[in-house]
Amino acid sequence: xxxxxxxxxxxxxxxxxxxxxxxxxxxxxxxxxxxxxxxxxxxxxxxxxxxxxxxxxxxxxxxxxxxxxxxxxxxxxxxxxxxxxxxxxxxxxxxxxxxxxxxxxxxxxxxxxxxxxxxxxxxxxxxxxxxxxxxxxxxxxxxxxxxxxxxxxxxxxxxxxxxxxxxxxxxxxxxxxxxxxxxxxxxxxxxxxxxxxxxxxxxxxxxxxxxxxxxxxxxxxxxxxxxxxxxxxxxxxxxxxxxxxxxxxxxx
Length: 252
What we know:
By secondary structure, this protein is an alpha/beta fold. The protein contains ten helices and seven strands. Helix 6 packs across helix 7 and helix 6 packs across helix 10.
């Protein structure tokens, strides 16, 4: 089994990429199976009983691997950097390992790592602030709601809300490269902006990295609709002006 971990951060296009990987039919069905807050929800879905809200057992681990592979022979896991330490801590208790990569390998088998990053951190922070306020996280490709908690009909701009999210995302952006370097991991770097503009080509590169036939990328079509609008641009420009930040770098 060829397995991988998608290392990323919120509002980086990870849901888009997870959908695309699943649609190839050869790369599992990755998801955030070890996000502490989500473990009870996964347990309910799978008919398991969690011991606490933050932990899991061998049965949960085995079930997550099965669900993350979904009969494709490849297990995929999505994880945010702030969820890495809880996962590693629990796995080290279970397996008695002290090395990060060794315990991940013991739990999930031989692994490859993808690092999905969004270069424009201000735009990412704006997107996160809006989602936190409205509860709208994702829409399906046809425009229907996919994940919407209906918290507020419209978001309200404040400098503090965007700055708060930017701090979180900046820390996450530093965390992954530091972890890769400390553990001698060489991931495949995946750029959000490139993924959103050229999903099939990006997916082909990922499949090659995973040892899969890149032709399978043609089977996949984006399953989510981009949420960013002119309001996002207005917020980002306003925040950059108030923070004294330069405009984002132009992309070819």
